């Protein structure tokens, strides 16, 4: 009996000593509690759409275990903010223990409630930390933005979108037969994940901005870093048989395909006119055309993971004073900047369509980080009516393009392509080398072009 009792008493004594020592060294004071920030900011969040997740940490900077009496979201159950502490969601936590010189994570999200305000507004709350020696807090601040929400909407009559609040797209939004969607200068359109704007057969779109009030199409995440992240929404698609697409002083970014033009079989009139615009940061294509008939002037198509411009199954393409810049940082590029093909197209009824290819690039820069930035696939039966580059600066080993006053394989010296700045630096070989086009007197930014010696590309160098 004694042999059994003695080890038990020894274990009990050790247990009591351990717990007495542990409880004796533990502190409920929070003077040694350090927070990684005193304020958590959420950039503009559209009402009713959840935010990105923000993170901060709390540190026990002492050599003792710390027991925080209470951690609480001040707004309680009415708060628009949500917190998660080390994997546990809640609004009120008691007796949170942090080991000596250790830390714990807080994860925060917010969903802003709509109101009647057109301009962005501020929503606030705080997280309180309470110990025996007092309280400290972290402030939570979110900018909320009301918006017009379009979910799988079908526009059946001529419609003009107001500009007092942004527009947010969900799902497949469509302009139907006979209708025209007008998007005025200054309008902001945001695409939620996998949303798209479709212009169907017999319908049209007019998005005419100004230099001072451009129209912007982009994803609906406005937090830091999302402005240069591709693949946040799908993009704009001109479906086969769409009547007209007019875009001026427009920026389209952050999607999968910025602008897709489906015009099979080949249309006889210009289906899309794009000028003084930017298509940027796409997961697949900047501008994708299937036997399209388009004209693009003073426009930059930049930083897509795939082709910047792809003209497939023939088509008629006119580009003047455009910049194609392929320096995307968010993916590894393997495609050229420009792709042209006269391939045959076989439709779902197994009917073969043969389309001519007519492509003219004047005063354009085609450059990037690939060894070859122009890809031609000309094995189809479609006649090559024209395939010309005139007064362009090109990165290519295609010998036939060493003509028409083109400049081959000379760095255009963009100011900062990694920062999406494709304007020309002082020593750019594109300066003063463009062909004079009487109808193009301004550049992408509305600056005057040199009357006698204009620059190649979308931007005129400003001294």
Structure description:
The protein has one helix and 43 strands. With 463 residues, it is mainly β. It folds into two domains: 33-144, Immunoglobulins (Immunoglobulin-like, Sandwich); 148-424. The strands form seven sheets. An eleven-stranded parallel sheet has the order 11-14-17-20-23-26-29-32-37-40-41, with no helix packed on it. It has a nine-stranded parallel sheet with strand order 12-15-18-21-24-27-30-33-38, with no helix packed on it. A hairpin with a 5-residue loop joins strand 34 and strand 35.
User: Measured on Cα atoms, how large is the radius of gyration?
Assistant: 30 Å
Care to count the β-strands?
43
Number of individual domains: 2
Q: By helix and strand content, what is the structural category?
A: mainly beta
Helix tally equals: 1
Can you describe this structure in just a few lines?
With 463 residues, the protein is mainly beta.
Topology:
Elements: H1 2-25, E1 33-35, E2 39-46, E3 54-60, E4 66-73, E5 81-85, E6 88-90, E7 92-98, E8 103-110, E9 121-131, E10 134-145, E11 148-151, E12 154-155, E13 159-160, E14 167-170, E15 172-175, E16 180-183, E17 188-191, E18 196-199, E19 204-208, E20 215-219, E21 233-238, E22 244-248, E23 250-253, E24 255-262, E25 272-275, E26 278-280, E27 285-290, E28 293-297, E29 300-302, E30 309-312, E31 315-320, E32 323-326, E33 338-341, E34 345-346, E35 352-353, E36 357-362, E37 365-368, E38 374-377, E39 384-390, E40 393-394, E41 407-408, E42 414-416, E43 421-424
């Amino acid at each position: 009996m004694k042999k059994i009792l003695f080890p038990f008493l020894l274990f009990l004594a050790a247990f009591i000593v351990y717990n007495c020592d542990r409880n004796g060294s533990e502190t409920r004071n929070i003077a040694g509690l350090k927070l990684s920030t005193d304020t958590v900011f959420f950039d503009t969040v559209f009402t009713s759409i959840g935010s990105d997740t923000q993170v901060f940490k709390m540190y026990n900077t002492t050599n003792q275990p710390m027991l925080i009496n209470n951690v609480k979201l001040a707004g309680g159950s009415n708060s628009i903010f949500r917190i998660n502490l080390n994997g546990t969601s809640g609004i009120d936590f008691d007796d949170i223990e942090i080991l000596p010189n250790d830390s714990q994570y807080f994860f925060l999200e917010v969903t802003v409630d709509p109101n009647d305000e057109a301009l962005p507004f501020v929503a606030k709350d705080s997280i309180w930390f309470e110990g025996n020696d007092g309280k400290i807090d972290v402030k939570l601040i979110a900018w909320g933005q009301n918006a017009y929400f379009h979910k799988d909407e079908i526009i059946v009559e001529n419609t003009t979108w107001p500009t007092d609040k942004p527009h947010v797209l969900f799902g497949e939004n469509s302009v139907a037969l006979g209708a025209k969607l007008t998007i005025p200068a200054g309008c902001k359109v945001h695409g939620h994940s996998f949303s798209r704007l479709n212009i169907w057969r017999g319908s049209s779109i007019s998005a005419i901005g100004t230099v001072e009030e451009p129209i912007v199409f982009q994803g609906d995440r406005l937090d830091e870093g999302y402005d240069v992240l591709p693949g946040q929404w799908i993009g704009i698609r001109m479906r086969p048989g769409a009547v007209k697409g007019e875009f001026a002083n427009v920026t389209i970014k952050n999607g999968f395909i910025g602008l897709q033009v489906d015009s099979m079989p080949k249309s006889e009139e210009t289906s899309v006119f794009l000028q003084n615009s930017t298509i940027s940061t796409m997961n697949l294509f900047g501008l994708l055309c299937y036997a399209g008939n388009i004209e693009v002037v003073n426009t930059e198509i930049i930083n897509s993971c795939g082709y910047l411009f792809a003209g497939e199954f023939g088509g008629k393409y006119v580009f003047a004073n455009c910049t194609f810049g392929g320096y995307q940082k968010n993916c590894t590029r393997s495609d050229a900047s420009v792709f042209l093909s006269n391939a045959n197209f076989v439709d779902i009824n197994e009917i073969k369509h043969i389309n001519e290819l007519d492509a003219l690039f004047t005063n354009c820069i085609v450059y990037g980080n690939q060894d070859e930035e122009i890809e031609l696939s000309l094995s189809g039966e479609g006649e090559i009516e024209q395939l010309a580059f005139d007064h362009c600066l090109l990165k290519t080993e295609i010998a036939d393009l060493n003509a028409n006053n083109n400049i081959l394989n000379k760095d255009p010296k963009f100011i900062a392509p990694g920062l999406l700045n494709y304007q020309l630096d002082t020593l750019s070989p594109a300066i003063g080398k463009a062909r004079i086009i009487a109808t193009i007197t301004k550049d992408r930014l509305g600056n005057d072009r040199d009357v006698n010696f204009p620059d190649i590309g979308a931007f005129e160098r400003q001294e």
